[in-house]
Amino acid sequence: MHNLARALVDREGVRAVASFAVEVLAAVLAPPRCAACDAQVSMLAAFCSACASTVQRASAGGIGEGDTLAALVYGGAVARAIVRLKYEKRPDLSRPLGDLLWRALEPDAAAFAGALVVPVPLHPLRLADRGFNQSALIASRIAHRLGAPLHPRAIVRLRDTPQQATLDRIDRLANLDGAFLARRPEQVRARDILLIDDVRTTGATLDACTRALLAAGARAVRAAVVAAVTSYPGGGGGQ
Predict the structure, then answer these.
(1) I want to staple 189 with a disulfide (CB 3.0 to 4.6 A). Which of 38, 132, 170, 217 is the partner?
(2) What is the domain range of residue 122?
(3) Is the pTM here over 0.85, yes or no?
């Protein structure tokens, strides 16, 4: 048993070194740029110093309601980076944004042991238009960091609901009623789920996804987002 434990530790060490080597190589081949303005930055930085001055971290323990953790407050460079990711077709920005979320999750990483990582889905029509699901890209980064399984299609969006930005929380909940469904309930049954999204506004989308997962038999669902809107109304991505 001792030898097995040592082998596992050694394997994790090799994996960490290899992952760092890949990061270094990527930085050499394509020097990292600020996620908000494209200025060149150091290897592990998401933002240049000017943009970083506008970033507000969430309060200790995250912000939000229920079991939702947010890494940052939506605004400034964070909002700009998320808008660029989603609407300027910059899937590469999911990497620094995912790492920012990981830094918030890392202190409690042990709490997610054995969890399945599930992104909030896009409707197929919106996915076809955008070309990627930003939440799935961020979730992939988190799953990699956790060493956890990623289920990018665990839940599906059945209806292409109207944009939520102009709706209050009650109307958002009604707008999303029955909009999500677990594709294969056996994948999530009796499992802990880490639900990932880019932005939380009122929490209506996360609530709807959580209900779909629990209805399929998930044991528990915790949500984590890159950023949360702290004043509403305001455009935060409509979640």
Answers:
(1) 217
(2) 55-228
(3) no
